[in-house]
Amino acid sequence: MVWSRTNQLIAAAAEGLGARAEPLGREHTDYFMRLSLGERRAIVSKTRSPFLTQVAQGLANNKHLSRELLRARGLPCAEGVLVDESGDIHGPAVRELLARHGRLVVKPNWGNRGVGVATDVRDLATLARARDRARGLDLDEEVLVEPFIAGTNLRVAVIGGQAVAAAEVVRPKLQVGRSAEAQVAALNGDPRRGTWSAPSLCPMDQIEAEEDLAGHLEVYGLELEAPIPAGREVEITGEELEVIDRTDEVHPEWLAVAASACDLLGVDVGGVDLRGPMAAFAGPPASAAGAALLLEVNVVPALHLHALPTQGRARPVFAAFVAYCLQLPGAPPPCAVVGV
């Protein structure tokens, strides 16, 4: 039996707390695990706690609706236009967004792990291709179009209503003049990248070029084997180049924004994505003046980013997760009531 990286980290954290982590049934499944300590028991699904409701998970997964609700409660959320299966990607709302910002991001409204997300979309032809790809990957064929926000991808981990860690996630960008295939091969030579077939505690994963990158490149009119042309910036969404711990550099009010977003959506264990200049996160949200914004709340929050950063201090997020799920003394109480 081989646990995934996430479950290996959960099991190690449980052991460190004197608890047990064991399979739920006779046949191995990586999706469920039983935690126990004395009379305390909890069944978890990766980093989903036993207190998460289906309503809260579904609400958080709907990026457009959850953002609308959070914005109505005063949180600094990015704007966006929802295009459903009958909507026109070239409609006036999207055209106005493109004219006003010049660069857009297109993503599945119910997306996960950055799959189907196209950044740096600058023209209508690319916009249409990005729409088609995102729609095909979305649960309800819905596409979210939003402005491209320059700056840093900041992920904040929230456990039991408390923001416990923050990390800058640097995405790989393909360089001009070399093929995507060659550049991905070079990236995969990094010993810090592990494989899905043999899970380890490597902080990053191998990039499967044929699995998702080929379709991603088609959005920009590019191919895996062809050199990246001048003037084109292609970010490999959903992958990491570096993960830098920023917990001690983020202003407490931004951490409070992340915790509030989770609380309002009923998400007790979440990863909140913020984006903007790193300098904006050093001060309170009011001082950022729209330069930094909240993008989304993720229900399966990739806690390994904080436990295994490539730079900076590792944070004990899995110990906090286990303690919360088992409701050990000192852990925050369950908080999975939708409050918007």
From TrEMBL:
<keyword id="KW-0547">Nucleotide-binding</keyword>
<feature type="domain" description="ATP-grasp">
    <location>
        <begin position="67"/>
        <end position="326"/>
    </location>
</feature>
<dbReference type="InterPro" id="IPR011761">
    <property type="entry name" value="ATP-grasp"/>
</dbReference>
<keyword id="KW-0067">ATP-binding</keyword>
<protein>
    <recommendedName>
        <fullName>ATP-grasp domain-containing protein</fullName>
    </recommendedName>
</protein>
